[in-house]
Amino acid sequence: MQAAQIYELVNEDFEGVNSLINAQLSSNVPMVEKIGQYIVTSGGKRMRPLIVILIANALGYDTQKNALKLAAIIEFLHTATLLHDDVVDASDLRRGKSTANAKWGNAPSVLVGDFLYSRAFQMMVELESMEVMKILAHATNVIAEGEVLQLMNVKNPNVSEAHYMEVIRCKTAMLFQAASHSAAALCHIENQTQSLRDYGLHLGLAFQLIDDVLDYRGDASVMGKNVGDDLAEGKPTLPLIYTMAKGTHAQQELIRGVIRKGGLEDIEDVLAAVTESGALDYTATLARQHSSKAKDCLNSLPDTPYKTALESLCSIAVERSY
């Protein structure tokens, strides 16, 4: 199933989520609405709320009850992290557009991110599910820890693969996991909660690992962000970590030096090193393994178009070009 077919399958629900998002962006402070609308409508894939909707439908849950609200909550949490991420990373381009911090400055971006977090928790209360609240409160805490862990790793060439996998579990995969886990909890399907939770975890890991590959192999015009952004910031992502472990001595020394200083002066040499060392292929293979594990987590679901769509997301996550 192609991405367009998946979105078409849940088109009515997705329109409901978008309407809810627009309604909940309402604020007495014009700048809050302006920045909120700008970032929310900037063309993201919205995979995380899509997971919520697909799982609710796959489990036979009446999506009009609370699933649409949960999907909107997940999107607000994700958008808040993007606003904060772009400030921390000093990014100026996301999804092919100027970031909010590049357009309005750091302070408004951080504060509107806080608004989206708090609005998400207001909406969580309306779900009247302590289990969902518990899952999402835990997730937001872990995501914040992941951001700090990543910040601590900047310009540190001694980060191990195991430590890096923990960072991306916290920073990226956790919200995918929270989306699938909370959707199962909302539907009160206890016998499948663990497997659906793990579905989101493995899908999120696969998604981030492909992002690591695309940072070196992607097309900036397609991705909507600059190739080599992570390298420029001195972030030791898996392709760099693998090259330092398995590459030639010269490649290892190159990567260590580039991570320490950041920047893109040696981008061509780095691209050659991560390619020749097999680092990009290794990272892509690991992503496919997690994608396969995510699919296996869906085995207990009844065979419906929604299950097929959830399986297809696993393939889309590792085959995408942006």
Based on the model shown, name its key terms.
single chain; 322 residues; two-stranded antiparallel sheet; mainly alpha; magnesium; Farnesyl Diphosphate Synthase
Short description:
This protein has helices at residues 3-9, 11-24, 30-40, 47-58, 67-89, 100-104, 106-127, 130-153, 161-186, 193-217, 220-223, 229-232, 238-246, 249-261, 267-276, 279-296, 305-319, and strands at residues 93-94, 97-98. It has 322 residues and is mainly alpha-helical.
Model description:
The protein is mainly alpha-helical. The protein has one domain: Farnesyl Diphosphate Synthase (Orthogonal Bundle), CATH 1.10.600.10. Helix content is 75%, strand content 1%. It has a two-stranded antiparallel sheet with strand order 1-2. A hairpin with a 2-residue loop joins β1 and β2. α5 (67-89) runs antiparallel to α7 and α8 runs antiparallel to α9 (161-186). It starts with a helix and ends with a helix. The relative contact order is 0.12. Supplies octaprenyl diphosphate, the precursor for the side chain of the isoprenoid quinones ubiquinone and menaquinone. This is Octaprenyl diphosphate synthase. GO terms for molecular function: all-trans-octaprenyl-diphosphate synthase activity; metal ion binding.
